[in-house]
Amino acid sequence: MASMHEIDFKIYGDDMQFVEIELDPMEAVVAEAGGMMYMEDGIQMETIFGDGSQQNSGFLGALLGAGKRLLTGESLFMTVFLNRGMGKKKTAFGAPYPGKIIPVNLAELGGELITQKDSFLCAAKGVSVGIAFNRKIGAGLFGGEGFIMQRLTGDGWAFVHAGGTMVIRDLQPGETLRVDTGCVVGFTPTVDFDIQFVGGVKSALFGGEGLFFATLRGPGRVWLQSLPLSRMADRIVMASRVAGGGGREEGSLLGGLGSLLDGDNR
């Protein structure tokens, strides 16, 4: 018998999507704080301490789940939306920035999915939102976005968000894909994940692609995004600097040299 709540859902929109979830009486969905868009009368909200699963019992179990979330940079608390009304009720959760909402049936993936720590949106009550450490030396020393990730476990539906356009790649055994670290949304546990140095002084300093990239080796499925939140935030910061007179190339090495030649010592 499945331990997860078997929810029904529908995704609306194109670039700014939201997912509407239909709950039977006493069914529930768990989400990050602040992700709710709307909910119908009869649905009760409850803030819980921990990772949202029912697998751990007692205070120590809840404390363990909360500690895992704290390590991923998330809140210690999650919100449960429980249908205590008569008949079916709906609640919806919106994407945090332009992109796509990806519905994932964990039962079809063997009960586990590894995701970037900020991509989780919501899931059926009972899905555990834990932590996944990458033990590779490269990822441990230089991982940045890829070192500490989230581990979604269970046999129900989970919803993750990908920025920009999303693409799914099914890697064959031994097949390797090199990706910008921020463009990795998630992957199945069978995929070998590591962080490697780009190599070459000129590539590292002037290439504009960062010092490190993620290496994904099959077999397994990989979800990628074209617009990581970190990349969009960097562009917004650069644009604000330009608007404030910081110069067109403020964020680059050449921009720094230009500022010096212009006498800009800020």
Task: Give the gist of this structure.
With 266 residues, the chain is of the alpha+beta class. It is 19% helix and 41% strand. Among the domains are: 8-163, Double-stranded beta-helix, CATH 3.60.160.10; 232-261, no CATH class.
Spell out the key features of this protein.
globular, Double-stranded beta-helix, single chain, 5 helices, six-stranded antiparallel sheet, disordered C terminus, alpha+beta, 266 residues
Description of the molecule:
This protein has helices at residues 58-71, 137-142, 201-206, 229-243, 253-261; strands at 8-12, 18-23, 28-32, 36-39, 43-49, 77-83, 89-94, 99-105, 112-115, 120-124, 128-133, 148-153, 157-163, 166-171, 176-180, 184-187, 192-197, 212-217, 220-225. Among the domains are: 8-163, 4-Layer Sandwich (Double-stranded beta-helix); 232-261, no CATH class. The chain is of the alpha+beta class.
Strand neighbour order, sheet with most strands: 5-6-3-10-13-8
Query: What is the ordering of alpha helices and beta strands?
Result: EEEEEHEEEEEEHEEEEEEHEEHH
Radius of gyration computed on alpha carbons: 21 Å
Kindly report the name of the CATH homologous superfamily of the domain at 8-163: Mitochondrial biogenesis AIM24
Q: At CATH's second level, what is the architecture of the domain at 8-163?
A: 4-Layer Sandwich
CATH class of the domain at 8-163: Alpha Beta
**Largest sheet features:** 6 strands, antiparallel
Give helix % range: 10-25%
Uncertain residue segments: 54-75, 137-146, 248-254, 256-266
Q: Name the structural class.
A: alpha+beta
Record field, number of beta strands: 19
SS element count, helices: 5
Mean pLDDT: 77
The 3D shape can be described as: globular
CATH topology title of the domain at 8-163: Double-stranded beta-helix
- What is the straight-line distance between the termini? 64 Å
The proportion of residues in beta strands is: 35-45%
